[in-house]
């Protein structure tokens, strides 16, 4: 019994240290990963025939820009936008600009769901195609962008020390919100 208790205590210490590391680093890692994804996918869009969503992106951008950008110039427009977002997120500089560009880009990225519903949800049951699923998953990027956006005003994750055993009680962790008066 004593050995099991000691093993559990060591695990509890490890869990606490991992939690402290996550609190200190997770938002930076999220920002860096989002930057890498946007820069990587943005670079792909510069090259004709490389991006698997090239046709959809070009058609959607043509519709949204009322024909100002079409064909490969539409892809270059989106490529530049995504690379700018990626660079802002990777560097941590001009983060506000990067988040606003992300919001603009996400409106465009989600719009095919409304512009091309019969193409993305074909068949009698209107199940989403793989491309539609790819687009729908962008809500995760939107949520991640919201977390990153909160940091420009100084928001941080703050850990309240809690043992692993007490965390097993089933209660949800509390989210603390501080509002500073003007």
UniProtKB/TrEMBL annotation:
<keyword id="KW-0472">Membrane</keyword>
<keyword id="KW-1133">Transmembrane helix</keyword>
<feature type="transmembrane region" description="Helical">
    <location>
        <begin position="97"/>
        <end position="115"/>
    </location>
</feature>
<feature type="transmembrane region" description="Helical">
    <location>
        <begin position="21"/>
        <end position="48"/>
    </location>
</feature>
<feature type="transmembrane region" description="Helical">
    <location>
        <begin position="68"/>
        <end position="90"/>
    </location>
</feature>
<dbReference type="Pfam" id="PF07681">
    <property type="entry name" value="DoxX"/>
</dbReference>
<dbReference type="InterPro" id="IPR032808">
    <property type="entry name" value="DoxX"/>
</dbReference>
<dbReference type="GO" id="GO:0016020">
    <property type="term" value="C:membrane"/>
</dbReference>
<protein>
    <submittedName>
        <fullName>DoxX family protein</fullName>
    </submittedName>
</protein>
<keyword id="KW-0812">Transmembrane</keyword>
<feature type="transmembrane region" description="Helical">
    <location>
        <begin position="135"/>
        <end position="155"/>
    </location>
</feature>
């Amino acid at each position: 019994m004593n050995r099991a208790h000691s093993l559990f205590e060591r695990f509890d210490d490890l869990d606490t240290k991992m939690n402290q590391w996550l609190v200190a680093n997770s938002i930076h890692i999220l920002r860096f990963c989002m930057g890498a994804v946007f820069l990587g996918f943005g670079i792909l869009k510069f090259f004709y025939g490389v991006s698997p969503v090239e046709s959809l992106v070009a058609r959607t951008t043509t519709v949204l820009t009322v024909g100002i950008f079409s064909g490969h110039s539409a892809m270059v427009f989106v490529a530049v936008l995504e690379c700018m977002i990626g660079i802002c997120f990777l560097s941590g500089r001009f983060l506000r600009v990067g988040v606003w560009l992300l919001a603009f880009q996400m409106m465009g990225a989600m719009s095919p769901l409304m512009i091309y519903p019969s193409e993305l949800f074909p068949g009698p049951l209107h199940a989403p195609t793989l491309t539609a699923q790819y687009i729908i998953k962008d809500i995760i990027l939107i949520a991640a962008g919201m977390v990153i956006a909160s940091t420009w005003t100084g928001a941080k994750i703050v850990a309240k020390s809690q043992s692993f055993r007490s965390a097993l009680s089933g209660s949800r962790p509390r989210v603390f919100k501080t509002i500073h008066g003007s």
